[in-house]
Amino acid sequence: MSFMEKVRAREVDLALLLVAALWGASYLSAKSLTQHAPVLTVLSLRFIITSLAIAFIWSLKRERFTRPELALGIGLGTSQGLILFCETSGVSKTSATNAGLIISLAIIFTPIFESIAAKNWLPRPFFVATVVAVVGVALLVSDKGFAAPGVGDWLMLAAALFRALHVTAMGHLTADKKYSSVNLTLLQSLTCAVMYSVFSFDGIKIAVAEFDRGIWLNLLFLSLLCGAFAFLVTLWAIRRTSSSRASLLLGTEPVWAVIVGVSIGGESLALLGLCGAILIIGSSYFGQKIETQHRLAKQQPQLS
Q: Does this model's pTM top 0.85?
């Protein structure tokens, strides 16, 4: 098999790894932007650009918006807006490495909320993984010596909890419904853009006048590659592989956050922080594997 044939055989896996890498790099990108403008201004410009890109994609298909889609899209957009405000505020007050690792706890929190909603409790080893992940966070934020988590770390932890609730609600509200993915994504993006712009109108005018080319390129990277492009690639890839495999590959996001934060952002991890990072990533994968096996076992038909 030639090199190109091997690439084509793995194109879905490579596409999902690319998305995970982009999302991992987004923390350093967002942190850099918040050094030049307030958080709400950065978020407003980001989602204005993302909305324009997704609106262009929508114009190619022109799927009609239904009333349930409008209600759900605006509702999910509101919760997404809260999550991203916590994320961006958090990364502005902590390292991009910490941000990417702590937000990955959503991988652990989501199955817990889903099990509560479905009244289907997870096995005990999953909660062992949860405890290990929490220990990992404690070590991570005490990287330079034992200390209480900073404001940025708490905001990222809140974002992880809100993201898990958001994903759980989205899954239950869209189950067995034929909603358009593009319509819902556009509505969520537009809702975020409007919310942020209402509170940062003056900041937008100042940013547009003062941002240089480098800042705009960074913003375009965050808006188009980490936003619209990542959405399209994820949608394309998930339809061509299993959800568990997609989750596994997208779950490499914190690994990429560490790689980008250390290699490009010049951040560092001391021994405690490195141990915490390993515990967070390892327990997330272990917990994800347990949850997948538990869910698939429940889906198997019961033999009489």
A: no
